[in-house]
Amino acid sequence: MNTFDRVLQLKKHKGKYFKDIWNWLDIIIIIISLVCIVFNLYRTYEVERTLTTLLEKPREFGDFEFLSYWQVQFNYGVAFAVFLSWIKVSLCERYLFNNISIAILFALDLT
Q1: Torsion-angle region of residue 60: left (phi > 0), alpha (psi -120 to 50) or beta?
Q2: How confident is the model over 79-102, as pLDDT tens digits?
């Protein structure tokens, strides 16, 4: 849903869309997430293919070094996406809390 929403906003606002840091953060999170999803699908396919080959040839050594390297990179990507998402959520919460606090103060001041 968020990806579709960002694409619509990008079409609507064109170059102005990238002037806001929040939009950059959204795009980076979406790109990292999509790359991780694609890698997860590739990894599942590659492990299944390698295990099938190993089951057919039980005396052969299975080389998972390439996949293990990319698994570590995948873990870093997921951690980075979660970190950026956490920053966005915590800053949004702080922004909302400040606005609610100001609204309450104004409401108290008017009475």
Answers
A1: beta
A2: 999 998 888 888 776 766 666 666
Centroid of chain to Cα 5: 15
pLDDT per residue rounded down to tens, the chain (111 residues): 566 777 787 778 777 877 878 788 888 888 999 999 999 999 899 889 888 888 888 888 878 888 889 899 999 999 999 998 888 888 776 766 666 666 666 666 655
Nearest to 26 by CA among 42, 13, 39: 13
pTM: 0.67
Domain ranges of the chain: 2-84
Q: Are 29 and 88 a contacting pair, CB within 8 Å? A: yes
Phi, psi torsion values for 59, nearest 5 degrees: -90, 0
Burial letters 45-82, b for 16+ CB under 10 A, else e: eeeeeeeeeeeeeeeeeeeeeebeeeeeebeebeeebe
